[in-house]
Design brief:
By secondary structure, the protein is an all-beta fold. The chain has no helices and 10 strands. It has a single domain (3-98), classed as Jelly Rolls (Sandwich). Strands 1, 3, 4, 7 and 9 form a 5-stranded antiparallel sheet that branches. A 5-stranded antiparallel sheet has the order 6-5-8-2-10, with no helix packed on it. The chain is globular, with a radius of gyration of 14 Å.
């Protein structure tokens, strides 16, 4: 069964994504799906996603797919979509959003 989650990552510098099993494909957008005069848009209405890549921290490789590893994704859009073609294979998805402190 297909499945996805969309995360609003605006105002963060990077996010860490960890899976214990299965795979997710990464994409991002700055299109909030805004309907002028009606809504500012949000993660539910976001549209026009494009593939992005993360640094796999286990081996320092670059990939648009995260498996049973930890990936670091620099924030390159307002929303990040984690998509899986087979949700039943995923046991747990952990996401940590981080802001780099300038102090």
């Amino acid at each position: 069964m297909d499945g996805y989650i969309v995360i609003d990552v605006s105002n963060y510098d990077y996010c860490l994504i960890q899976l214990n099993s299965g795979n997710v494909y990464l994409s991002s957008t700055i299109d909030s799906g805004v309907v002028e005069g009606v809504t500012d848009g949000n993660a539910l209405t976001a549209d026009n996603f494009f593939e992005v890549s993360a640094t796999i921290l286990n081996d320092n490789s670059i990939s648009s797919v995260i498996g049973d590893k930890i990936g670091r994704l620099n924030v390159v859009g307002r929303y990040v979509k984690l998509y899986s073609p087979n949700v039943s294979l995923i046991d747990k998805v952990l996401v940590m959003l981080a802001k780099i402190s300038t102090k």
